[in-house]
Amino acid sequence: xxxxxFRRILMLIPVxxxxxxxxxTIMFFTPGDPARIMLGExxxxxxxxxLRTQMGLDDPxxxxxxxxxxxxxxxxxxxxxVTRRSVAAELFSRFPATMQLAAAAVLVSxxxxxxxxxxxxxKQYSVFDGFSMALALxxxxxxxxxxxxxxxxxxxxxxxxxPSSGYGTFWHLIMxxxxxxxxxxxxxxxxxxxxxxxxxxxxxxRTARAKGxxxxxxxxxxxxxxxLIPIVTVIGLQFGYLxxxxxxxxxxxxxxxxxxxxxxxxRQKDFPVVQxxxxxxxxxxxxxxxxVDIMYAYIDPRIKAxxx
Amino acid sequence: MAxxxxxxxxxxxxxxxxxxxxxxxxxxxxxxxxxKQRSQWAEVxxxxxxxxxxxxxxxxxxxxxxxxxxxxFVAPYGFRExxxxxxxxxxxxEHILGTDDLGRDILSRIIHxxxxxxxxxxxxVSIAVIIGGSxxxxxxxxxxxxxxxxxxxxxVLLAIPSILLAIAIVSAFGGGLVNVxxxxxxxxxxxxxxxxxxxxxxxxxxxxxxxxxxxxxxxxRIIVKxxxxxxxxPIIVQGTLGVAGxxxxxxxxxxxxxxxxxxxxxxxxxxxxxxxxxxxxWHVATFPGIAIMITIFALNLLGDGLRDALDPRxxx
Lengths: 308, 316
Hints:
B: 0% strand
């Protein structure tokens, strides 16, 4: 088991190297001179040239990439061209807010998706099933930034019960979390339903029923446990989507996280911040998927047995 | 993308069991008998037609496409036509969906915006299908080291949430229609590479491929003539859902100011422009969002229906 976890962690290294290469390459070919952006349009050419040398901007591509990776491993993602502060420090100070939002969104999506999916599956083709499946389809069809605005319109402006922006209390968290979590909730609902439907047809479920077990025990203990693997996979994959969605949603709700910081950085052409932000979010996503992979082993003894 | 995962237990499938029993579904039939293949597409169409929700989706999409084509005739006003005396006017008889901050008719802008959104959706998915599909086909067909390299590269791209990858590309190379299409397309390459690879691997061991090889067909011919047609089903399904995802992604990019630039009417950009008016003029942001939602909803309905019609056993 430990061997398996260790191997999965090792596999993360080439992937993250790849991600850093992709991100670095995109930013490398970006038109615009970082030294020029830092010093402003009116700075004399020799000063810009000096800063270019200092920043290592005149080095060849590979040298710069290797430096970037070596520094990134040490936790140094360069300096913001705008605030001149350390990108890593700026990102990490905002990271907890983003994680809080993502965690709340996962909670919303799981709390909605799994129960609705189970009920839909147990009452297939019922009115509830039809209604929740239609709702799920609406959920995946709404652009989340639009949904956020509509929620502000309804709950902040029309009814006036929730704050439209800001950070700090539980009430501030509700709308952004629901906004990001909705489409994931819809996908988890559909996945739970189809996975449950498949499991419910298995022989061992018939056996469980034949033994005289109550329906709730059959569903919760026998069916759900076996239906969980694809559901957990989807939840893990959704996490990446949630992190991406956070970029837009944080902007709408003025949530002080990594996403909004990145959007501001994009507007100011602050490339080290964009680069660092993408890297940080990709690493988070990969780590979450790693955790999901490890969780399989705990959910499914068959997987555990393979790696004993 | 958000809508790539779903179940396929549509009631209609239950009502119409697969006419090809014993696992001979669309994916596996010999492509060299054109007559049979035609009847197969007819069969798919027949199954699709029985799916009421899919037909609703198809109908809506046809209407949207026609609207986009005939936008100049359908729209009551020009999309750049300003009337500064009518700024941010709520819906009225003259302007059914109201006017925006420059007094432009929102309905007309939504109608013209459908052109942009459809274009972005279709072109971005085409880019992803062509590049991702080729990579997946080569990698699945040849296997070995090539497969390893390509798939590891795809793992890397998949590790970056696709909207973030698109944001990174557009923020580096600038917004605008073409860049948005490319960015969104590149960001969805890995999905298609994986799907095509998986179906190529399942097809390439089939007897008809062996037969083609036995009569001396070269790799290129085998891939193009035999393997790709037999991997079409999952690509069509994913492509339909992918258009929806691409439209959403493009709208998202425009929303943060990285996408299609004004005065081109684009739904995401219109939404973005309405964001600051939400307290005073709710309609400016509301209606473009509804337009996006209807389009995506219809594409999802069709995509789900196509999946069921093309291969009822196809999961994901």
